[in-house]
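Example 470, ligand F0G.
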Amino acid sequence: MTDAAKAKTQTLHGRAPKGSARQKTVASFRCVGCGALTNSPEQNFRCIACGDLLEIFYPTWTSADGRAHAPDPNVLKQTWLQRKVSRESADESGVWRFRELLPFGDDEKIISLREGNTPVYQLPRCARSAGMKRLFAKHQGMNPTGSFKDTGMTVAISVAAQNGFRWVACASTGNTSASMAAYAARGGLRCLVLIPEGRISWGKLAQSLDYGALTCQLRTDFDGCMRVLNEVMKQFPVYLLNSLNPYRIEGQKTAAIELLEQLDWQVPDHVIVPGGNLGNSSALGKAFLELRELGFVQSLPRISIIQAECANALVRTMQENGGKKLIPVQAETLATAIRIGNPASWKKAVRVLEATGGRCEQVSEAEIAIAKAEIGSDGVGCEPASAVTLAGLKKLVRNGFVKTNDHVVLVLTGHLLKDPEYTLKFHQGELFDPRDAQQEAKLRVHRRTPQVLDADASAVLKLLEQSGAA
Ligand code: F0G
């Protein structure tokens, strides 16, 4: 093979030839409020001029004379496919496989658990129940720690390590902390977790303990944990890993890139996402916008964001002032992952709704529980917060925003086993007040109560008979 051919093959596999590793993708930080630019953000990742959040942008992709440096979609689509057969650890990650669209060079050390690479499933039963011809789900709960957080965490933790931090920290409803704890352990960093006492699932708490985090259960809610963390950060040098860290958003973008690749770059009509602190909807929206800008695709999916009825800060903000000023709420929902009343990334999420023409909807606790059982009966399963997507889709179909033939992808954010207590209580009839007869009748259809029987074959056979087995 000639040297030129060798170099080409190596680049295709993402391994730059020795001595000529791919340069770091040029990136800078921009305030989403006042537009101020900076190259070195503050510890709290907020704009020093106005206090708003920062986002990463890539000046060479857009500036008139920088066009020449913009990545070539056709070359990259090929490169990313080729990496699927590579054994390099960066290539085996469904995040780092797309590293040309991240602010990293090939030389930089990364901390990875082979995150991403999550499946897209068809959900035939859920499609029927929502009145759709077909329905798809991108299951981000199939990440190494069981939630979408891993895709952002691998990037942000790698930055923390490169910058020499010894401690990382987050406030969490349980999934961010589980993910951070795992990646910190892999990278040899210490980590501080602040979670609301008694209000996160024990599965998520167990993960944080097992991965070795210093875990504090505070007598407050998520928003209270965030306030305390801000105070701690002023007095102790920790690296903040909540989703206001813009590197997390960059990593979470890759789920949208991977999804489009899985759909052979056919853009779906709708992508439906749960909304909590609103980092994920912001990240997916940013990815779709960048991919269109770079010419990977010509159109955008409408991104709709679904919240629980009593944790509906974005819904109220959109309804009551068209997204101009956040209306925080006192959040309450059994879908504890999205029990957030003061979402940090609300402004970024509003921009995504506006840019893509999506809707923001709210769903009730019973609607969430039924949707979750339906996703389960397609053999897929998810945690309660993820099920808001199906519950929200049903509303969007009913009000005509989504049409029966549309191509819709639900983003399932967490694994079924993240919150087994919720699932058990639902099927045992203990999640809701049984005195609400109308609600009870709707729930009963979806309930699959475990049967306690004597250790006797005839008892099991009788049950089979009653269940319609001929
Ligand atoms: N789904 C799951 C399973 C989550 O854990 C979260 C957020 C969301 C949806 C909402 O995503 O915040 O980006 O809008 N969990 C965070 C945590 C807040 O601390 O684990 P978002």
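Summary: Residues 147, 149, 172-176, 243, 274-281, 337-338, 383, 385-386, 413-414 surround F0G (CB under 6 Å).
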